[in-house]
Amino acid sequence: MATRIAARHSGILRNALCRPGPIARSMSTAPPPPGPPKTLPSFSMQGKVCMVTGAARGLGYEFCRAFVSSGCTSLAILDLKEDEANAAATELLTFARATNSNVDPSSVKIIGVECDVSSERSVQKAYEDVMSAYGRVDSVVASAGIVENYSAFDYPFDRIKRLYDINVHGAFFTAREAARNMIPQGGGSIVLVSSMSANIVNIPQPQTPYNASKAAVKHMAASLAVEWAKKGVRVNVLSPGYMLTKLTKTILAHDTELRTTWERLTPMGKMGEPEDLAGAIVFLSSDASSFMTGSEIRVDGGYCII
Ligand SMILES: NC(=O)c1ccc[n+]([C@@H]2O[C@H](COP(=O)([O-])OP(=O)(O)OC[C@H]3O[C@@H](n4cnc5c(N)ncnc54)[C@H](O)[C@@H]3O)[C@@H](O)[C@H]2O)c1
């Protein structure tokens, strides 16, 4: 009896496994619908004017690619050197025209703007240029930043000051100027790029001022978020873990063992690629995160959880 029941059940199971139900059938046979994959419209950057500091290379450049891939056709790339900002703009223009093939190529506008974020006047001047080019700015990302590895006793003060001028004051000038322009237009989104170093102490390399600067950026975002919450300006933080860019490659060039150490300390066992941040930056910068302000998204392969 028991054997018969088992045999019957195994028959049912075999039938269930062999005969595809409606879901299995549609998964195995239905061709994908034509056109781009369907996604939530609120994630679209279509019609938004975006501006990214430190965007001639590295993560900033990747944020621009993510915006373009999500439909942005009006973009400003800010960086220290005008020729590098312009070169990145030219490259992205080609990418944008190829990616957004459904839009009129002449409507795609990407400009490079020289800007030293550590100078308030330079940031104001860059905004003037961007406003005269586009008339508005909807999404701003403050990505410009530097890192240096000195022990606390060895770090020359002029270099510490320069690091804070770029990482902390640069983020503040960028956010303040963004909000000045966004509030009269009804709002916008600001993302400050902090780091997992705002939450943990990196080892083995010493970098106390950098870690403190990124913790400052994180709390700056929360504080500005409160100041501007009712004015329609959202301020959030994106905190990457170890990502492969010039910033980290420069450090790794001096120490071949270091990458293995970083990867061992990361639960996912690897460094991130810049494009691993694409989803998070689009989420924070788009209407998909419209009820989110003063928050941090960590994208670090799990580094901070252990
Ligand atoms: N790469 C990582 O692993 C990592 C991890 C966590 C956080 N971050 C943060 O992400 C941001 C971008 O880092 P990245 O890896 O792309 O670095 P990167 O060195 O590759 O690029 C930084 C860009 O910022 C520009 N820049 C530097 N000083 C500037 C200034 N005063 N004004 C305007 N532009 C300036 C540089 O010219 C460069 O184009 C930084 O704030 C960094 O602290 C990076």
Automatic annotation (TrEMBL):
<dbReference type="Pfam" id="PF13561">
    <property type="entry name" value="adh_short_C2"/>
</dbReference>
<keyword id="KW-0521">NADP</keyword>
<dbReference type="GO" id="GO:0050664">
    <property type="term" value="F:oxidoreductase activity, acting on NAD(P)H, oxygen as acceptor"/>
</dbReference>
<dbReference type="GO" id="GO:0044281">
    <property type="term" value="P:small molecule metabolic process"/>
</dbReference>
<keyword id="KW-0560">Oxidoreductase</keyword>
<dbReference type="InterPro" id="IPR036291">
    <property type="entry name" value="NAD(P)-bd_dom_sf"/>
</dbReference>
<dbReference type="GO" id="GO:0005975">
    <property type="term" value="P:carbohydrate metabolic process"/>
</dbReference>
<comment type="similarity">
    <text>Belongs to the short-chain dehydrogenases/reductases (SDR) family.</text>
</comment>
<dbReference type="InterPro" id="IPR020904">
    <property type="entry name" value="Sc_DH/Rdtase_CS"/>
</dbReference>
<protein>
    <recommendedName>
        <fullName>NAD(P)-binding protein</fullName>
    </recommendedName>
</protein>
<dbReference type="GO" id="GO:0050085">
    <property type="term" value="F:mannitol 2-dehydrogenase (NADP+) activity"/>
</dbReference>
<dbReference type="InterPro" id="IPR002347">
    <property type="entry name" value="SDR_fam"/>
</dbReference>
